[in-house]
Design brief:
Helix 2 (42-53) runs parallel beside helix 8 (191-204) and helix 2 runs parallel beside helix 11. Helix content is 34%, strand content 23%. A hairpin with a 2-residue loop joins strand 16 (296-301) and strand 17 (304-310). The chain folds into 2 domains: 1-127 and 187-261 and 354-434, FAD/NAD(P)-binding domain (3-Layer(bba) Sandwich); 128-186 and 262-351, D-Amino Acid Oxidase, subunit A, domain 2 (D-Amino Acid Oxidase, Chain A, domain 2, 2-Layer Sandwich), CATH 3.30.9. Strands 6-7-5-15-16-17-14-18 form an 8-stranded mixed beta sheet, with helices on both faces. It is built from 14 helices and 20 strands.
Length: 434
């Protein structure tokens, strides 16, 4: 696929408020390096950083521009969580693995702050002020309370506390919740400025990033790999696949795309709320999620309210999806009914069959790191140091992330209808309060 990627490129709030980009050229020559990285998002850039730190020479190829994919489209939530609950990890894999995964999550969040300090990315506007899960009914609240108690007893977590319905209403401005669980780990960030700052940092260290350079073919031989692009090629000893939910853009990632279920997540942002009846909403500035299966989430960006959720299907945006999101926002916050929506966009979340990210090898020349399941800002920008370890022949221990290989879908061609069926079932369960 050499034409325009089959995904909408609506201007997001992040694009509208991004710092000026560093001009980057496309590859128009034949070059050599130690490791060629396909994908210019958090994973690819972080991998390049730590490969260069080991004295290796990496080259990054990006089919569009840095941050065009999930790294520049996400909601900007920095979290220690995985899609798979820690209690489920302990139940199926043992408490020691759950504890290890918990520590990895903490390290990933701390690493965000380290990157910002190292590269001086003030424009990322990182605020480590935590997040609040808002329970939509009593059953959900009981589950959150049990989770908080288990985290404290089993993982020695002291960052999670329960809030009453009045406390949640005071913080969010919404009376639609019966309580919630506050987690003080993590926070919020400008995701596009974050990835642009990482790119500038590794460029300053001598790493070459080629934008508008899709990888079209990978040829392996006994000495290494050759990646061909529209106007050039890269000869390397190894290749890293870091395309995550956008692994359908070209055929070179077909060996991993059958393990990923792309799920579209949509977002809308309001006009500035200062001076309006909605100015008091989300006064603490955290990120907020609700506990319905078809989760909605919301946060403040400056004095605008950003509202997001899953349920927009296919490879293009639709008026129906954005309309449903706006209706849900108005139901949650009636003060916003007279407020204009100024930006709307979407991106792809990569889901895996077992709900955890994976880092590993496909063969002696090919390393992959994909599958962040919607919680990837911290993990994908952290995991590059471990990608570098795998490239170097080491075996890092990231619990489930490195213990098990990717699981591939047996009927990949029907994944989109299957996602619609599952999402429809979840919507029904939410509607009846289950």
């Amino acid at each position: 696929m050499q034409g325009k990627p089959p995904y909408d490129d609506i201007k997001s709030l992040w694009q509208a408020t991004a710092v000026p980009r560093t001009v980057s050229t496309a590859l128009v020559d034949d070059v050599q390096c130690d490791v060629v990285i396909i994908g210019g998002g958090y994973t690819g850039l972080s991998s390049a950083k730590y490969l260069a730190k080991r004295g290796l020479h990496p080259v990054v190829l990006e089919a569009s521009s840095v941050g065009w994919g999930a790294s520049g489209r996400n909601g900007g939530v920095v979290s220690t969580e995985y899609r798979l609950d820690f209690r489920d990890i302990a139940k199926h894999h043992g408490l020691d693995i759950a504890r290890h995964m918990y520590r990895v999550g903490i390290e990933a969040v701390e690493h965000v702050g380290q990157l910002i300090d190292e590269y001086g990315i003030a424009s990322a506007d990182y605020r480590p002020i935590g997040s609040l899960k808002c329970a939509h009914n009593d059953l959900a609240l009981k589950m959150l309370s049990d989770e908080a108690a288990w985290l404290k007893a089993s993982l020695n977590d002291t960052a999670s506390t329960m809030l009453s319905s009045s406390e949640v209403a005071q913080e969010t401005g919404s009376s639609g919740f019966v309580g919630g669980m506050l987690c003080r780990h993590g926070g919020v960030i400008h995701p596009l400025n974050f990835v642009l700052g990482i790119a500038d940092g590794i460029r300053a260290a001598g790493v070459s990033i080629y934008e508008r350079t899709p990888a079209l073919e990978i040829r392996r031989d006994h000495l290494g790999v050759t990646v061909t692009t529209p106007e050039g090629s890269v000869r390397a000893k190894q290749v890293v696949l870091a395309t995550d939910g956008y692994s359908e853009l070209t055929g070179v990632t077909k060996r991993i795309r059958n393990a990923i279920i792309p799920f579209r997540s949509a977002m809308i942002a309001t006009q500035p709320l200062t001076g309006t009846p909605a100015a008091h909403l989300l006064g603490e500035g955290r990120s907020y999620t609700e506990t319905r299966r078809m989760m909605r989430w919301f946060r403040k960006v400056g004095d605008r309210l950003l509202y997001g959720g899953r349920g927009a299907f296919g490879k293009t945006d639709s008026e129906a999806a954005f309309g449903a999101l706006r209706s849900a926002m108005h139901s949650q916050f009636p003060e916003l009914e007279a407020i204009d929506v100024t930006h709307r966009w979407s991106g792809l979340v990569s889901l895996t069959i077992d709900s955890v990210p994976h880092l590993g090898r496909l063969d002696d020349r090919t390393v992959y790191s994909v599958g962040y399941n919607g919680t990837g800002v911290a993990m994908s920008s952290y995991i590059g140091q471990h990608v570098a370890s795998v490239v170097a022949g080491e075996s890092p221990n990231l619990g489930l992330i490195t213990t098990y290989p990717l699981k591939f879908l047996p009927f990949y061609s029907i994944r989109e209808p299957a996602v619609r069926i599952v999402a429809g079932w979840y919507q029904f369960l939410d509607a009846i309060g289950r």
